[in-house]
Amino acid sequence: MATNDRKTVRLPLLALRGVVLFPQMVLHFDIGREKSIYALNEAMNQDRIIFLAAQKDIRDEDPEGNDIYQVGVVAEVKQIIKTQNHLRVLVEGRYRARILRIEEEEPYFVATVEEYPLKSSRSTNQKMMSALMRTLKDLFQEYSMKTPRMSKDLVFNALAAENPEYLTEYIAANMPIHTDDKQMVLEESSVTKRLKMLIQILEEENEILTLEQEIHEKVRSQIDNNQREYYLREQMKAISSELGDGDSAQEEVYEYYDRIEKLKLDKETAEKLRKEADRLLKMPYNSHEAGVIKGYLDTVLDLPWNVFTKDKIDIEKAKKQLDRDHYGMEKVKNRILEMLSVRALAPDIKGQIICLAGPPGVGKTSIAKSIAKSMGRKYVRLSLGGVRDESDIRGHRKTYVGAMPGRIINAIKLAGSQNPLILLDEIDKLSNDFRGDPSAALLEVLDSEQNYAFRDHYIEVPFDLSHVLFIATANDLGNVPQPLLDRMEVIHLTSYTREEKFQIGKRHLVPKQLKRHGLTAKQLHIAPSAIYAIIDYYTREAGVRGLEREIASLCRKAAKMIVSGEAEKVTVTDKNIQSFLGGHKYKQEILADDGEPGLVNGLAWTSVGGEMLQVEVAVLEGSGKTVLTGSLGDVMKESAQAAISYIRTCTDKYGIDKDFYKTKDIHIHVPEGAVPKDGPSAGITICTAVVSALSGIPARSDVAMTGEMSLRGRVLPIGGLKEKTMAAYRNGIKTVIIPEENKVDLEELDQVVKDSIHFVTAKHIKTVLDTALVRKFVPVKEHANEASNMTAGTLEYREEDEKRGEPLIAH
Fold this sequence. Notes:
alpha/beta, seven-stranded mixed beta sheet, five-stranded mixed barrel
């Protein structure tokens, strides 16, 4: 015995899993672990006394000393029954004890334990103790009523208990609460705290049981209603069968009910469809209204409700797919791969709507197909060109004759999944009339904050479009309404270079057309020189559609020659291509020699790419009229007026007659007069051409320019630089003058363009004139001393001009 009168003994220790024993309680449990069997045998060889303590983690198959709770119960083994795989043991707890130290761990636990009695409850307020016991009993009685499997004897014994120590241990031992909670009660030495602890546990358990009962009642009520409806429908079916009245009609309606149940729709949608089915059941089978309802139900139930394809995003595979389908376009491919990478990290991301903008034939539609392939999504193309009715997007009310869903819902139905890739092709070709604006209807479709509950006018129930990946294409973003454009992230696709067109033709178009026309590479050989010749002399385009058509024409002619027996193998080169495609449709642009005043190369942007635009100016004797021809728009005409006004303010700088606006007529013409032209970016081109014509100094033929000009000669920024510089590259231009504020846009240009063209940035028109004209101006007043013996109209020479022998006309 210890000095504090607590019993200390050395006993075999058995670790319990998921079970806690209390003093004076009887417990059945099974053992099968080798350590536990050894400990039990040792107890049986002595006086049947063993120490039982719970282990902390029930998943631990071989716990160590630290894995066992320190407080347990000294118990007497009453009975052991051997079964096939384990031993069934009956024990009775004697008193609470705690481990002082573990003496041995192999082959079984042996521990020195000390008796650990409860604190005396005599000093506790007896009224408080009675109140706690009464509360605990009431809660336990409530718990037993909500737990039908609870034995009545257990409840009676608990309610009859007068000893608070016995009451707490009895309730804790017989309630199916968590092992950790039972251990907490066992370890607590204060009876008052034990009572409070059990009161809290029972209150939580009673709340959980109440919620479980409510859930059970709801489920049971729903099941009862469903069964009731099922029985009633079966009875109606049997009655209809006996009467021989409309078997097929009844069967069809019941099939609708079954399909509604199987789809597991949301409450609103399911209720709406059931009401429509109920109406169909009550009306004549062959009535017009019945046909409308059947069409409606078939359409809605055929939609892919809760059907999704799993995204298979493999960046390497996607990169190979894009490289296989498209040549070049590195920046566009990288942007697509970035988008796919984000989706790989955040699969539930919403609101990513891409708009591919660029001239026709550069691969916008095929890029969308490649994205769908690389993601493993269904692909649907939706052509919006010429769509002018809002109902094309939202659908028609089903009350109208011939009503049908809108194009969005039809696309979902065709895809067969709720998360396809939908291509909104030619979104800039949308129009509107008195029937509504389809672009306004697309605002909801492309808004991730709204499209989770998109309501088509025909189906009348919300459909979730938030999982759809929308990709739009456009040629001219200027025709896309700004609110619609704000919902999309724009990726610009530019014109192909000559080399890119050659590679696309060689790698993709030639094999594709050979296969389409049933030819092999042995039967028709198109030499690289022939592809270059088609690009240079038979097509003028930003994309490659014209190139593909010409290659198809070669295939057709070769097929005819082979089938007719004229040749077994056909070879096309640049030498004989005219015999297949006829004479050259386009002549290679030959830049004029420096020597024609009033002719300047400008650069323009069109919806099919960039173009080089020459501006011609003729100065005639007259009365100061300005004539503008070439289908010029108002903005371009105003640019011409601004240029002439600026020149009038600085005639001395450029050696121009001060009275030119009174004595000369100026005719400004932009060739290809049948093509409308407009925009401010020709401002510096017009000004340079007018100065060149008035001064008689030619502009350099290998220089092109673009930029808006203010009335004070400042050069203002423009758009479409990438397409414009591509046009300059195609036409052999060596120097391009751009506004200084567009310098940042040079980073976006293709490397081949930057390597081939020298760019000059200009803040003022003086820089433009100094670069574009074949020689610089020297105001007459700066050479007054040198020219004192000259009269007006005499030729002057500058030092640098003397080296070249070029005169400067002085006025």
